[in-house]
Amino acid sequence: MDGSFLASSRGPPWLPAAAVDARRLAYWGQVFFFVVMIVSAIFGIISLFMWVLDHASGGGTIYLLVTAVVNFIILYIMKPTVFDHIDQGRFSEASDHMLIYGVLGIIFGIIPGIFLIIAFVRLQEVFQPQYQPYPPGQIQTTQPSEPAKVPSHPSPPQQPTPPPAAAPEKPKQPEMVKCKKCGVQYPAFMRTCPNCGEAR
User: Fold this and answer.
1) Going by C-beta distance under 8 Å and a sequence separation of 6 or more, which residues neighbour residue 94?
2) DSSP 9
3) What confidence tier does 181 reach under pLDDT thresholds 50, 70, 90?
4) Cα(74)–Cα(35) distance, integer angstroms
5) Cα gap 143→145, rounded to integer Å
6) What is the pLDDT of residues 118-145, one digit of tens each?
7) What does pLDDT average to over the chain?
8) Fewer CB within 10 Å: N-end or C-end of the chain?
9) Per-residue pLDDT tens digits for 26-80
10) What angle do CA 108, 123, 107 make, to 5 degrees?
11) Is the Cα torsion angle 97, 82, 120, 65 positive or negative in sign?
């Protein structure tokens, strides 16, 4: 690990839109895991002192302390198991971990779990087959041929048409490869499919 257990809010620029949204939602889930961990630790310690001094019921105290510990563990392992997997294009592993942490987040803090469940659902769009329409001019259709008409009077010579204006260049996108097994498109620099793990 690089010393920081909190992931940054931005990922690599080549991520698909669904992965970018899922990563953003997971980032906010991580922030709320941190907030819930701090709040539950503070109230858990206060409740522990009240439980020891007043001999009150300890069920809430135990839940708050367990919530703080579980949120700390999830917060600590979320960067290498969710964010790094998304950044490397291993969406299947990231999706599995998001679901597990989302369920634990609902049990131990509600709001972080909701963010991770929504991120999990959003990341599922990456696994859907991508259909891209053909660019204009690439499909050649046969035109029905019409008999040539003989003009009754000579037509004036045609003016030479100016060359079309050069279209502005689009930003360079990484070359994409389609998986032979599952049909998912992924960047060509990756050696295996992020969805099924099939080698190129």
Assistant:
1) 22, 81, 82, 83, 85, 86, 123
2) S
3) confident
4) 13
5) 6
6) 999 999 998 887 666 666 665 555 555 5
7) 82
8) N
9) 999 999 999 999 999 999 999 888 888 877 677 788 999 999 999 999 999 999 9
10) 10
11) positive
Radius of gyration of the chain (CA): 28
**Which structure tokens are listed for 76?**
């600590």
* Amino acid found at 12: P
Cα distance between residue 61 and residue 74, in whole Å: 20
17 burial type by CB count under 10 A (0-12 exposed, 13-18 middle, 19+ buried): exposed
Q: How far apart are CA 116 and CA 111, in angstroms?
A: 9
Task: Report the pLDDT value the prediction gives residue 144, as an integer from 0 to 100.
Answer: 56
State the Cα–Cα distance between residues 183 and 193, nearest whole angstrom.
9
The answer to whether the CB of 106 falls within 8 A of the CB of 120 is no
Q: Do residues 56 and 50 lie in contact, with contact meaning Cβ atoms separated by under 8 Å?
A: yes
Q: Please give the Cα distance from 191 to 200 (Å, whole number).
A: 6
Q: Compute the distance between CA of residue 115 and CA of residue 78 in angstroms, rounded to an integer.
A: 13
Is pLDDT larger for residue 199 or for residue 85? 85
Other CB atoms within 10 A of residue 191 CB: 7
